[in-house]
C-alpha cells in the first residue's frame, strides 16, 4: 500500500457524491480510476450528515460514502494550530481540514473549495479537483 498516495478528502469533494454537482461524474471517474487511500477528519462526517439533512438525502448514503474514507479525530492541538494558519482568506472549517491534512502527512488534498485549494497549495500540498476548471 505504500505506493498508493494518501489523499485528504474535503467535504466540498465528497459532498458531490451526496448531492450532484457539475463535477460529480469527473470525481466518480477519478475515484474509480485512481489508486488512492482517502483520509479525512471526523469533521467530514458532521458536514456530510448536515448536508444530507439540508438536502433531504438518506443518511445511509452518507454512511456508504464514509465507508471509503479513514477518519481521524481532531485533538485540541489541531484546533489551536488551525487558528494560527497564516492564510487570512481561509475560513474556520477549511482551516481545520487543512491542519488535519498536514498532520496526517497526506500527499494531496481532494477538494473543490477554491480557498482550501489555494491554502493547500501554499502549504506545499498537491491539490486534486477532478472536472473543475483550472483547479490542478
Summarize it.
This protein is α/β, with parallel strands linked by helices. The protein has helices at residues 11-18, 24-33, 43-55, 59-66, 76-83, 92-103, 114-122, and strands at 6-9, 37-41, 70-72, 108-110, 126-128.
Portion of residues within helices:
40-55%
Low-pLDDT runs of 5+ residues are none
How much beta, percentage-wise?
5-15%
Task: Find the CATH superfamily.
Answer: 5'-nuclease
Terminal CA distance: 25 Å
Major beta sheet, specifics?
A: 5 strands, parallel
The dominant shape is globular
Q: SS-based structural class?
A: alpha/beta
Q: Looking across the biggest beta sheet, what order are the strands in?
A: 3-2-1-4-5
According to CATH, what is the topology?
Answer: Rossmann fold
The Cα radius of gyration reads 14 Å
The CATH architecture term is 3-Layer(aba) Sandwich
**Average of pLDDT:** 95
Number of strands: 5
* CATH uppermost class: Alpha Beta
Alpha plus pi helix count = 7
SSE order, one letter for each helix or strand: EHHEHHEHHEHE
How many domains is the backbone divided into?
A: 1
Describe the structure.
- By secondary structure, the chain is of the alpha/beta class.
- It has one domain (6-128): 5'-nuclease (Rossmann fold, 3-Layer(aba) Sandwich).
- Helix content is 50%, strand content 13%.
- The protein has helices at residues 11-18, 24-33, 43-55, 59-66, 76-83, 92-103, 114-122; strands at residues 6-9, 37-41, 70-72, 108-110, 126-128.
- It has a five-stranded parallel beta sheet with strand order 3-2-1-4-5, with helices on both faces.
- It is globular, with a radius of gyration of 14 Å.
- The two termini are 25 Å apart.
- The model has no long low-confidence stretch (mean pLDDT 95).
